[in-house]
């Protein structure tokens, strides 16, 4: 399933109940009484008070709704309250910046090796504070995937002794696997060059995850249906760089 983009929007009027990272079934709901907020003085200065705006930091504990699972997630972030805004009343906007463990942005197939899964889980954690770093972790995961698929990292020098590293792009060309599609990995490489604006970065990151999920499903679930279409769309959108 493509990433639920609204769910991972990073800015929220109300905090969503994410899917549990452990069981992938239950929803994470905040434990009663666990939500704590504080207002740093340096943010809530005279100007802010005059404008009727308050800036807060928060922390909360969320528990999986599936009792058999019982996963516990610690989350934190900030929010701004700008008071009466429109007919909906107060405008409050939350910006979470950490979850431990972090909700998965797509369901990783059970058979994906730990070496490939590890950096992907880190990407889901980093996403909340640094999209560039998260994208780089997805790319690392894809490079490890090439290792698992027995694609060499080094080759012999054309002249002289010794070996040199093979670029990610060239490693993709070396990939020989009945289910691995070279154009999918190539599309991943293309969106690895992230844009500069937050919204563009976020959009590119979601595209990257969509195609990587399709690829992992094809390799470890054999149920990918639209990965080729996705890779073609991503190539069209971002162009060859
Ligand atoms: Zn759970």
Overview of the structural elements:
By secondary structure, this protein is of the alpha+beta class. The chain has two domains: about 30-100, no CATH class; about 115-240, no CATH class. The protein is built from seven helices and seven strands, in the order ββαβββααββαααα. A hairpin with a 6-residue loop joins strand 6 and strand 7. The longest helix is centred in the last third of the chain and has 23 residues, at about 200-220. The model has no long low-confidence stretch (mean pLDDT about 85). The structure holds zinc ion (ZN). Zinc ion binds next to loops.
Count of DSSP-assigned helices: 7
The run of helices and strands is EEHEEEHHEEHHHH
Helical proportion, percent range: 25-40%
Bound molecules: zinc ion
Radius of gyration: 21 Å
What is the structural class? alpha+beta
Low-confidence stretches: none
**Span between N and C termini?**
27 Å
Let me know the largest β-sheet: 5 strands, antiparallel
